UniProtKB/TrEMBL annotation:
Signal peptide positions (record): none
Keyword tRNA processing among UniProt keywords: no
GO MF annotations, alphabetized: methyltransferase activity
One GO process term, biological-process aspect: methylation
Organism: Klebsormidium nitens (Green alga)
Protein name: Protein with DNA (Cytosine-5)-methyltransferase domain
Any coiled-coil regions, as ranges: none
Keywords: Methyltransferase, S-adenosyl-L-methionine, Transferase
Residues annotated as domain Reverse transcriptase/retrotransposon-derived protein RNase H-like: 268-308
Record carries keyword Ribonucleoprotein: no
Superkingdom per UniProt: Eukaryota
Length: 311
């Protein structure tokens, strides 16, 4: 839903939204966010535009056929994401397009071709990890020769370059604008990033930004200064049970008085670093941060899968 929210926040009205998402939890989260956005931007995202967004298409891209495409009618924009496990550096056993999850790429490309064939030309955008320099030779070759062979070179950049408070290095391929122009836009946006922007800007009351332990970045757009408050999170996902989660106020964590008892640490993991937050709850179940801790992952840990890292 990130692309939909980006369009809405840029002032673009969503007339009708159709989605294909195989994960039931992801669909529920998306619907909740769409309702929130509708409340904030009622003139740009009416509930009628998305109330049946998961109803018209099968929720498995492989099952979408010609009749579904014809029922869609003409489309303005198709946004495509496909599972990245086959190309991710976080996996120690990445298999590229030989991973059946990531192989969905082929089905997604085929779908876009069918949409254009039956409904006429439209804008499209693909997003995924950038595996151009993946350490596994076969994975790297499949990405550079197959994915880029089909979609083009694309533009890879860190989300912090365009104002994000969290690192997320991804590749973008689109027919909306030339790739060279997209590179220029990213560069200019990074130049305009405020030197005073830190994660403290988005933390709730009672929460303090950690100090940067290193200045590394997943790409050329470095924003961290060792010893200074973090300018971007390695990853920042609000989920039930995390230190950032408050029921009904996911985007605005609240401080609370310290509760009795021994609180559990709340870990957060990314490819490059590990963090933990020690919290306690008050008598109303609200969380209060007691302490922070973080460190960089070593070379072996950077190859862990999400399961290995989280257990």
């Amino acid at each position: 839903m990130a692309s939909t929210e980006a369009l809405i926040r840029m002032g673009i009205k969503i007339k009708q939204l159709h989605c294909c998402e195989s994960d039931q939890t992801a669909r529920a989260v998306a619907m909740a966010r769409l309702k929130t956005l509708s409340g904030i931007f009622p003139n740009l995202s009416a509930e009628s535009a998305f109330e049946n967004c998961f109803g018209l298409l099968p929720q498995d891209v492989k099952l979408i056929n010609q009749s579904h495409i014809i029922a869609l009618g003409p489309l303005d924009l198709v946004v495509c994401g496909f599972p990245c496990q086959g190309f991710s550096r976080a996996s120690g056993t990445a298999k590229g397009l030989r991973d059946p999850r990531t192989a969905v790429f082929v089905d997604v490309v085929r779908l876009v071709h069918r949409i254009i064939r039956h409904q006429g030309n439209c804008a499209w955008l693909f997003e995924n990890v950038d595996a151009s320099s993946h350490p596994d030779l076969q994975v790297r070759q499949e990405f550079n020769e197959v994915v880029k062979g089909v979609l083009g070179q694309g533009c890879a950049f860190d989300a912090v370059a365009v104002g994000s408070y969290a690192h997320r290095y991804r590749g973008i391929w689109t027919n909306l604008i030339p790739t060279t122009l997209l590179h220029e836009m990213v560069a200019k946006r990074f130049e305009a990033r405020s030197p005073t922007q830190t994660v403290q800007d988005v933390l709730g009351p009672g929460r303090l930004a950690l100090r940067a332990q290193h200045s590394r970045a997943p790409g050329p757009h470095a924003v961290k200064v060792v010893g200074e408050p973090l300018c971007a999170f390695a990853t920042f996902v609000t989920y039930r049970g995390s230190h950032a989660y408050v029921a009904g106020k996911e985007d605005s964590p609240a401080a609370a008085k310290v509760a009795q008892g021994r609180p559990p640490p709340d870990p957060d993991w990314s490819v490059v670093e590990l963090g933990a937050v020690l919290v306690q709850r008050d008598d109303q179940g609200r969380e209060f941060v007691i302490a922070y801790a973080s460190r960089s992952n070593n070379r072996t840990e950077r190859n862990y899968s999400n399961y290995q890292a989280g257990r």
